Amino acid sequence: MQHSNWKEAFEVFRLMHCAGLGPNLVTVVSVLPSCNDFFGIYQGESVHGMIIKFGLSEQVSVVSALVSMYSKLGKLDSAILLFCCFTEKNNLMWNSMISGYLVNNEWNMALDAFCKMQIEGVAPDATGIINVISGCRHTKDLHVAKSIHAYAVRNRFESNQSVMNALLAMYADCGDISTSYTIFQKMEVRMLISWNTMISGFAETGDSEASLMLFCQMCHKEVQFDLVTLIGVISSLSVSEDAIVGESVHSLAIKSGCNSDVSLTNALITMYTNCGVVEAGQQLVDSCFANTITYNALMSGYHKNNLSEKILPLFYQMVKNDVKPNLVTLLNLLPVCQSQLQGKSIHGYAVRNFTRLETALATSAMGMYSRFNNIEYCSKIFSLVGERNIILWNAFLSSCAQCKQADMLVHIFKHMLFLNVKPDAVTMLSLISACSQLGDADFAACVMALILQRGFSAKDLVLNALIDMHSRCGSISFARELFDNSVEKDSVTWGAMINAYCMHGNGEAALNLFSMMISSGVDPDDITFVSILSACSHSGFVEQGRRLFKSLQADYGITPRMEHYACMVDLLGRMGHLDEAYDIVRSMPFRPSDNLLESLLGACRFHGNSKIGESVGKLLIESEHGKSRSYVMLSNIYASAGKWSDCEQLRSDMEAKGLRKDVGVSLIGMT
C-alpha cells in the first residue's frame, strides 16, 4: 500500500468496523503500519483490541506487525512482551523484533536477538542480516562487524546484492574503508548504491582522490549517477579544497538537472567556501530556496575564511526571508557579536525559542559574555543549566580565567571537586591560567602536585601551560627543567620557553634557545616569532632582530602580522633607528595599529626626533580612534623642539574635540 494512502486505509477500516464487518488477516496487517506512520498509540491499541476480539492474535504475520508498530511508537516493552509470549517464532517475527530494537537504539539487544534466534534453530535470512549490520554501523564495533561478515560468507549470502551493499556501508562506517573497497572490487554486479557507498565512504575518510577516481570509473562504465553520488563527490572536494574540479562537478549537476535540490546546494556552498571561493557560495544562497542548513553552511564558510563581519548581516537576511534559525545558527552567531547588546539579543532569542539550554549553546554564550568581561552573566548561565558535564564546568572556569577572576576560578574548581566532578586536561589549563594571574608560587606548587597526581603532566597542552605558569610565578629555572624533561617538544613548547625568557628580560637565553629549536628540526610558527622578536626588542638586539624579521617570510613562508611589525618598530625605536622604523610603518600592507604608532611616537619623543614624530602623531590624530594621550605626546614633541605655535594649535584642537588629558591616579595603602 502506498504511504500516501495510509489515512484513507485507516478511514476505510473504521467504516468497516462501523458497518459491523470484521477484519481479516490481510486487513489488519495492511492497516497496522498506518498507526505508527500517521496516527499514534491510541489508534494502535484500538486495532490491537479488535485483533484479539476477532481471534487474529495467534497469527505470525499479525503479531509481527504489532511488534513493529509498538517498537516504532516507542513502546518497546509492549513489543517485547508480545514477542516473548508467542511460542512459534519464524524469521518474520525475529526480524520484526530485531528491527524494533534498532529503532529504539538498543544495538546490543538487537545483536543478542540475532544470536539467540540461531540458538533456537531459526536461520537468519537476508533481512535479518541486513538488520544486524545496521546495528553494527551505529556501534562501530569492527570485531562484531567481521563476525557478521563471516556468517554471511559461510551461509552463501555473497550473491545477495542487498547484503553486500549493507556490508560495504558497515565497514565504511566502522572506519575500515580498505575492507569495504576489497568487497566492492569482488562484487560481480555493482549497483548505483554500491558506487555511492564507496564514493561517500572515501569522502568521509578524507581520501578525496579515491572518491573522485571512483566517480570517473563510474562515468566511464556509463553508470548513471544520482543526487547522492554528486553530494558524495562534492563532499570529497570540500576536503581536498579543489575548486577547479568542484566547478566541473557543479556544471555536471546543472546539466543533469540535480542543481535545484537544496541538499546539493548546501554541499556546494561548503565546498566553495572551503576552497576559499566565498563569492560562489554567496551566489548560491541568493539564487536558491535557502533553508536553515544553507545559511548555516555559508556562516561556517565565513568563519573559515576569516569573514566574521559578514555573519550577522547574513543572519538578518535569513530572518528577513522567514528562515528559522536553529542551534547551529546561534553557535555561529555568538562568537562574532560586536557588542554585548548584540550578544544579549541572540542569547535572549535562544532562551525564548529553545525549551532547554543546550551545553553547546551555554558554553558559547559564556564565551561571548567573557569577551566583554561580564562574569556575572557567565555565572547566571552556569547556574541555570540543570545537567552540568565537564564541558560546561570547563567553559565556566575558562570564562573566569578570561575575565581575570582567578579567585573565583579557584573557588569554582574546589566546588567542582567537592561534587566529585572529575577534572580533565582542559580543566588544568584554566587552573594554570589562574596561577599565572595570581603569581603565587605556593599555589602553583599545589597545582603542579595535583597535575602530577592526575597524570596530566605528559599532555603537551598542559606542559606548555605549566612552563608559562612557572615563569610568570618567577620560577624560570623550574620552567626550564620542565622544558628539558619533555620528551616531544613541538613549536608551542619551544615558543613557551622562549617567551618565558622574554618575560624575564633574558634575550640572550631566548636567542640561544631559538637556535637550538632550529637545529633540532622544529620550524618556528608565527607566535614563536612574536616571542623572539619581543626578546630582541627588550634586550636591544638590533641585528638579530633584523635577521629574524627577514627570515620570517623568506625562510618560513610566514606572512608578518601586526604583532611582528610592532615588535620590529619597538626594537628599532628603542635603539634610535627611527628612520628605519618609520620606513617599516610606511611599507606595511595594512594600517598600523594605534599601539604601534604610539610606541614609535614615544621613541621619537625620547630621541628628540620631531620630524618623524610629527608625521606619526598626525597619523594617530587622523585616526578615528585618536586618543588624548596621542595629542599630549605630540604636543610634548613640539614643545621640546620649540614649536610653540604648533603646540598651542594642538591643545586648541584637543579642546574643540572635547578631549582631556588623562588624569593621573595615586593609590594610598591604609592600615
What structural class is derived from the secondary structure elements?
A: mainly alpha
Q: What portion of residues is helical?
A: over 70%
Residue-averaged pLDDT: 84
Q: What is the overall shape?
A: elongated
Strand share of the residues?
A: under 5%
Distance between the termini: 89 Å
Question: Which residues form runs of ≥5 with pLDDT under 50?
Answer: 667-671
| Rg over CA atoms | 34 Å
Biggest sheet overview: none
Number of helices: 39
Total beta strands: 0
Keywords: Repeat, Transit peptide
PPR repeats: 90-124, 191-225, 291-325, 389-423, 490-524
InterPro entries: E_motif, PPR_At4g14850-like_plant, PPR_rpt, TPR-like_helical_dom_sf
GO molecular function, one term: RNA binding
Structural commentary:
This protein is mostly helical. The chain is built from 39 helices and no strands. The protein has helices at residues 6-18, 25-37, 41-53, 60-72, 76-85, 91-103, 107-119, 126-139, 142-154, 161-173, 177-186, 192-204, 208-220, 227-240, 243-256, 262-274, 278-287, 292-304, 311-320, 327-333, 340-353, 359-371, 375-384, 390-402, 406-418, 425-438, 441-454, 460-472, 476-485, 491-503, 507-519, 526-539, 542-554, 562-574, 578-587, 594-607, 610-622, 628-640, 644-656. It is elongated and about 115 Å long. The termini are far apart. Pfam families: E_motif (PF20431), PPR (PF01535), PPR_2 (PF13041).
